[in-house]
Amino acid sequence: MAKIETVKHLDDLDAESKYLIHKAKEAATHAYAPYSKFCVGAALLMDDGSYMTGTNQENAASPSGMCAERVALYAAAAANTTAKITKIAIVARRKGGKDLLPATSCGTCRQVMLEFETRQKSPIQIVMLDRQHNWIIAPSAESLLPYPFTKTNMEHPDSK
Question: What is the pTM of this model?
Answer without folding.
Answer: 0.90
